């Protein structure tokens, strides 16, 4: 874990800015930065903070977020759905293999978390998640991987529709936080993902001040 390193940057206060969006109409965030700028580290931090399977008081108790007013309100209160879109099913795989792998992993995780739910009764993931009746935090890493890598170009619209159908206007979405390299507007010129507020490394929720707290642990 990064917080165990001798030197680390306490970025946890930015969680308070994300908390302001939870369960609001502005609950869709997309952060686009070049590679190696810590997007996945922040995603992992959010997962540890929001996720029910964790008991994160010891992790966050000494960090900046613990001083924020709503620290305990969202701490470990949600089931988190984390998707890494840069994981491919194998060489020569088709788009259907790619998106089928994502769908299969999600269904397996849901089946494990909700063993009493017969997921085979539901043809689509949105129907399945709606039937569960819980609210979820979605963390989607490198959402634009197939675009930036030039993969499955003939299916790019299908992929946008997959994300739209999964997330847009769904009551089970408490928060959706995506990372990427290139802006959504470059690909989604219509209404598919227009619910997202997009931020870059220059304007991410006024978070520059949160990244300067370098601490030394002895």
Topology of this protein?
Blueprint: E1 7-9, H1 14-19, E2 28-32, H2 39-50, H3 57-60, H4 71-74, E3 79-84, H5 95-113, H6 125-132, E4 136-141, H7 145-148, H8 156-167, E5 173-180, E6 197-200, E7 214-216
Parallel strand pairs: 2-5, 2-6, 3-4, 4-5
Antiparallel strand pairs: 1-7
What can you tell me about this protein's structure?
The chain has 218 residues and is of the alpha/beta class. It is built from 8 helices and 7 strands, in the order βαβαααβααβααβββ. It has helices at 14-19, 39-50, 57-60, 71-74, 95-113, 125-132, 145-148, 156-167, and strands spanning 7-9, 28-32, 79-84, 136-141, 173-180, 197-200, 214-216. The protein has a 5-stranded parallel β-sheet with strand order 3-4-5-2-6, with helices on one face. The chain is globular, with a radius of gyration of 18 Å. The two termini are 16 Å apart.
Identify the notable features of this structure and list them briefly.
two-stranded antiparallel ribbon; 8 helices; alpha/beta; globular; 218 residues; 16% strand; 5-stranded parallel β-sheet; disordered C terminus
């Amino acid at each position: 874990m990064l917080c165990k390193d001798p030197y680390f940057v306490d970025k946890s206060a930015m969680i308070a800015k994300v908390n302001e969006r939870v369960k609001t109409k502005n609950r869709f965030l997309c952060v686009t930065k070049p590679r190696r700028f810590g997007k996945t580290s922040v995603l992992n931090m959010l997962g540890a903070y929001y996720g029910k399977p964790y008991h994160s008081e010891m992790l966050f108790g000494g960090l900046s977020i613990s001083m924020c007013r709503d620290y305990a309100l969202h701490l470990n209160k949600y089931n988190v759905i984390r998707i890494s879109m840069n994981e491919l099913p194998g060489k020569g795989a088709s788009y259907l293999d790619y998106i089928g792998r994502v769908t299969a992993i999600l269904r397996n995780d849901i089946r494990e978390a909700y063993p009493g739910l017969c997921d085979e009764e539901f043809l689509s993931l949105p129907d399945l998640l709606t039937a569960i009746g819980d609210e979820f935090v979605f963390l989607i890493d490198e959402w634009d991987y197939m675009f930036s890598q030039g993969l499955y170009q003939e299916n790019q619209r299908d992929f946008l529709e997959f994300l739209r159908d999964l997330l847009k206007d769904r009551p089970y979405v408490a928060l959706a936080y995506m990372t990427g390299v290139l802006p959504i507007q470059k690909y989604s010129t219509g209404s598919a993902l227009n619910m997202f507020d997009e931020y870059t490394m220059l304007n991410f929720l006024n978070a520059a001040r949160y990244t300067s707290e370098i601490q030394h642990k002895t």
